[in-house]
Amino acid sequence: MRIGSKSKNEFFLTLNLKNENIQDKFLKKIMNATKTVDVKVMLGDSTVKELSTFDPKNIENFFNSIITSLNDWSSQGISYSYNDDVRRIFLKFEIMEGDFVISLHISIQFHVLLYYRPEQRVISLQKELSEIIDKTSQSDSNYSVEGNKIILQKLQDLGHDKINEKNLFELFYNDEKLSKILSEKIENSQGEEILQLNNRKKELLKKLDDLLLETFQTSPVLIDEQKLVNGEEGCLCNIDIEHFENNSKHGLFDLDLINNEFKQKIVSRINEILTVMEN
How far, in Å, CA of 54 to CA of 36, rounded? Predict the structure, then answer.
């Protein structure tokens, strides 16, 4: 049962008020941890601009302080989720009081944008890379045609007379040795000058990758789990109470099952969370 849900139960209404306070304090902590600074970055066309970013390390420091404070609660530590340009940092806690499980889930979701560092070296590398691409464009086209011929000939030599695109993918996927042999054979079919240029191209791309700068942006607003799954920016702070019965947790249960003793214990645990958010 999620604290904050509608209820007419007097005890649960008391918890809801505490939950509102906790969420308010949590949001203020997130706002402080995601304060932005201005940085200069370079776009792909070498234009330099200024934008705002925050440091995810501040979120990690905040979450680690909660781990230290809620030392009686079980937690697997800070976790991370990566999905294209969307990242999530989250933390889950759990503690039992009798037959009741209290859990806390806090999370922040943000976008990551990549830019180049505003250095002259980026421009020089891009210029050299562009020149190499111009030189090898015709060769790359011929390379593709020649590569197909080499693959078909090699497969025929191995007895694969009839092969389609799907079979070809499965064959390469299941036979790593064959895939490596064909790749080397195709690569060696190119001239020495083209091989050197392509190797240099790989070096340049690697150097440009090393000059990329990550910037981070989020919205300091509370969102629900559905918005979190949908990839929206924001933070989440949920507290749940579940009834542990027959070796499993149940989110829906009769609140009258909680006697006065465990009501006090649950309130004490919720107060622990509130204290952490206040400090």
Answer: 4
Burial of residue 76, with CB atoms counted within 10 A of its CB: 0-12 exposed, 13-18 middle, 19 or more buried = exposed
- Distance (Å, whole) CA 222 – CA 197: 51
Q: Are 53 and 190 within one domain?
A: no
* Distant-in-sequence contacts of 251-259, Cβ < 8 A, 24+ apart: 251/1, 251/2, 252/1, 253/1, 255/1, 255/7, 255/9, 255/11, 255/12, 257/99, 258/11, 258/100
Number of folded domains that form the chain: 2
Q: Residue 233 belongs to what domain range? A: 10-118+213-278
Task: Give dist(CA 33, CA 67) in Å, integer.
Answer: 16
How far is residue 83's CA from residue 111's CA, in Å, rounded to a whole number?
A: 10
> CA 259, 242, 90 angle in degrees (round to 5)?
135
pLDDT tens figures, 38-89:
999 999 888 999 999 999 999 999 999 999 999 999 999 999 999 889 999 9
- How confident is the model over 185-199, as pLDDT tens digits? 656 655 677 778 888
Closest CA to 236 of 251, 257, 214, 221: 221
Question: Residue 266, by phi and psi: left (phi above 0), alpha (psi -120 to 50) or beta?
Answer: alpha
Say if residue 74 is in the same domain as residue 147: no
> pTM score, two decimals?
0.77
